Amino acid sequence: MIFKNYMAVLKKYAQFNGRSRRKEYWEFFLVNIIISAVLGVLSLLPDIGGLFSMIVGLYSLAVIIPGLALCVRRLHDIDKKWAWMFISFIPLVGGIWFIVLMATEGTKGVNKFGTDPKQ
Q1: pTM for the whole thing?
Q2: What value does the mean pLDDT of the chain take?
């Protein structure tokens, strides 16, 4: 189920319009952490570690755009503009504030960015 939602995010590769639910965001985040951790551990292997280090880099590049698009859609769900992503650059509190934004329940019904994704 989690991987099904992960693939759904990847299918919307560069879709920066619309809205995304909290569940979609956090499942994508969780799967990225798991894949990165597994690849990171494999990159420590003596004989084939270099190969996996390269795969980690390629994977990271591959998920940057879908991750940014998902963040923008998630911000749209709470009726915020994309520029709120920059809040995370404020030292100490910015990252915490961004996590709170990503964990906030979306606007019920229609907002200026589209219809409720729950519908």
Answers
A1: 0.89
A2: 91
